[in-house]
Amino acid sequence: MNGAESLLTTLTNNGIEVCFTNPGTSEMHFVAALDEVPEMRCVLCLFEGVLSGAADGYARMAGKPASTLLHLGPGLGNALANIHNAKKGFSPMVNIVGDHATYHLEYDAPLTSDIEGIAGPVSHWVHTSTSSGDIARDAAEAVRQAGVSRVATLMLPADVSWSDNPNGPEAVVEVATPPSVPVERIEEAVTALQSGANTLILLGGREVGMPHGHLADRIAQATGARVLIEVLPAKIARGEGTANIDRLAYLAELAIDSIRDIEQLILVGAADPVSFFAYPGVPSAIAPATARRMVLAGPRDDTEGALTGLAEALGAMATEPRVHALNLPDLPAGELDAAKVGMAIAHHMPENAILVDEGITCGMMVNMFTGTARYHEQLSQTGGSIGWGLPAALGAAVACPDRKVVCIEGDGSAMYTIQALWSMARENTDITVVIFSNRKYSILEMEYGRTGARDGVPGPSAASTLNIGSPDMDFVAMARGMGVQADRATTAEAFTMLFEQAMAQRGPRLIDAIVPPVF
Amino acid sequence: MNGAESLLTTLTNNGIEVCFTNPGTSEMHFVAALDEVPEMRCVLCLFEGVLSGAADGYARMAGKPASTLLHLGPGLGNALANIHNAKKGFSPMVNIVGDHATYHLEYDAPLTSDIEGIAGPVSHWVHTSTSSGDIARDAAEAVRQAGVSRVATLMLPADVSWSDNPNGPEAVVEVATPPSVPVERIEEAVTALQSGANTLILLGGREVGMPHGHLADRIAQATGARVLIEVLPAKIARGEGTANIDRLAYLAELAIDSIRDIEQLILVGAADPVSFFAYPGVPSAIAPATARRMVLAGPRDDTEGALTGLAEALGAMATEPRVHALNLPDLPAGELDAAKVGMAIAHHMPENAILVDEGITCGMMVNMFTGTARYHEQLSQTGGSIGWGLPAALGAAVACPDRKVVCIEGDGSAMYTIQALWSMARENTDITVVIFSNRKYSILEMEYGRTGARDGVPGPSAASTLNIGSPDMDFVAMARGMGVQADRATTAEAFTMLFEQAMAQRGPRLIDAIVPPVF
Questions:
Q1: SUPFAM superfamilies, per this entry (chains A, B) (predicted)?
Q2: Does B478 contact A at CB distance below 8 Å?
Q3: For position B452, what pLDDT does the model report?
Q4: Beta strands of A136-290 (E only): which ranges?
């Protein structure tokens, strides 16, 4: 058994059964080994940014890492932005990066680079295997390091891959589950909540599931505390039956204003909230400096267990949580806009769908209506690097082949990783992509105003860099060019009909929704 | 004048008049400053890998750097692969990477990352400006560091951008030109060449222009030395009037065999040749270990000056170089293949065209015919990271608006940075893109065989990862979707007609050439 086969077998022994890949010459023995280890499903992507985003979406839905296979430093570089997003969203990921044979590095061939240097800023753990006898053990360590919330990156030199591994594959390694919070922290939270101070409980992190919301609302009812959810948790349960809890606003000014009177902040998975960007005259921190902070559970802790412990300690478990009743918006009519798209999506999205949200400004309008739609889970952009949505939808669909995936995308963000459409078609994934074609980097136009530059009014050069409507892009043509059924909608009626159709069938579809900018 | 304006003015004062960009919120003051500094031309790209490849293509043709504007660590990550290619090709580049305001970094907002860490592996010089009073001086230093062959990366925190710079912009800085080689080296080369040893002169590096070839051939005639050009120099003059000099083969086995009897190797701009990848049983070094190496000129030296000095010392300047006469292939007929595409391109490509070659396996067939075409310059893939061709063509066209750019692209490599087509349309560049649609990562199929994996025959899983024909991609649809006129050719006659048309008109065009794999 060569190094590559022992590596692959170690991964599949440990439940890592999907590899999102775009290989090159240095990975050919890994590719060859795929035929010896049929338990590994290989999903080919045409660009590495697609596959790393897919690995993120997969991990969020599968609750375990996928592996990636990348071609040396530049392949890792192409994957970097979506690895960044995964890292910020606490997604586990096991990256395998092919490298030149160990003895070939000194020759400085064209693809030679400092791969560990590139991997470091986006990985929790980085290691280069230097012998085929070690590679299986190193792969097992990568799986252990990735656990359920970290990025592990393992370099696989070509000769380590092709040489014999006399030690064979590794067996199952123990992966740490999210740790329970100590009872003292729960007691501290009880004291804080019973102090009479104005308290905000902020939920967030890897997952804000249905139980999290129910528990938090029970605690709120028992103590009078407010509960909010951070702006962009990695995964959030929404719709019918979920607790009626708002999310903190994206805009720092609004968010600051909405919690300016709190005296205590209890964090459950969420980070102490901050403005996404700095603006002249706007504070970076969202919560008042005077508010006392306490962390009930960090993003890698067992947040549901912590909330359960807290609700039990408060005697609140019997309280009925206040939840969203199903409330579908009426079907819209007339000229299409982002809100009408949101109404149609909320109306027709089936129960248990996965909504991948990279709709940016237009996405906000969808979120206004989906809170009372049928129960679903929503994945959000955690790292701020656009070009995540289409790949994440691909990964979510690979993880959950029996669930409908709806991906809402800005036109600007879609173009970063538009190649994802091809893999959606190739894998016959059940994804409906909705592109908001407003022909602008609309959020940047808004942000330009917020930064105060030139009194908030872009001059002609600046305006030109925010305008992606010259030439107009035709997403229907692009999608069809990659094998995805696609249609355009300019009216609410047309969009509704297309979306309803898409919900009733299986397989990849794209709807190009021509809408005016929200702002 | 704020920091951003002083930065931009410093760049334009120093002849950097193009900025390839994809900005975000942290760069809004830079974007605003574009309206104050109209000397800077801003070229918007929909993905950062496009803009870094464009900056590379621009630099190769303009002989000076463009600037890029990138959005924090992930934006730099997206640009990384083509910065790698630029660095390996000795292209100068001045990257401006926006960052959070200095005081905002401690809050660890979603887009916070170790930008210097990401920049390091692909930059010769990395610096973070920390005060608006320093930014113009830092920008001037970036220009100086980039010079004519290096990558300089300067981080621009948002508050450094928006705050007042009391010192104003910097004036012109002195940029070092490629240094002349010391006369001792020329004397050493004369001695080596007159020793009677079997000698190879290998040309390469930033540029192998018409004069380089003429000079090298004069030297060859005077001394009996052989001359070759390295596999993929950054820029090479080809066609009518250029010296009749072969390039070293890409395949290590062939290259090794072709120079196995040399006793001396004189490097002029080229590196000591090595195999692109390691293969079991194949040496990494191409030249025999016994051959004596000498460097007449490094890739950053004045290679033309060095060859002139050597030719003069040998009394060879009066010798008539042996050059290619114009020899256009006949127009091909019948079912299309890569060789016929090459014949049609060689037949119709106008004088002084720029041929950007990322045709990979099919590109080899074009190169067989273009050596005796009309005089042109060819840009090659220097770093091995595919997804460079379309962006480089964009940059070359921006640098040379009066020259026809022909870009030959593999279908697999085209898909890495397909968004480049949109910028080609937006800027109304005079580029004709030829896509070789063979629906395979054809070179990987060949490489699979060379690595010896599974006796060179891919099993079904491996074969699937090398096959990009499921689903087939329609480049005509994709190109039209991005505003580029596009057509498909399945016969030699159709291709010839389309290509002749494209050569006769201005503006972006794409021809999807349906061809069988070369191997």
A1: Thiamin diphosphate-binding fold (THDP-binding)
A2: yes
A3: 79
A4: 151-157, 199-203, 226-229, 235-238, 264-268
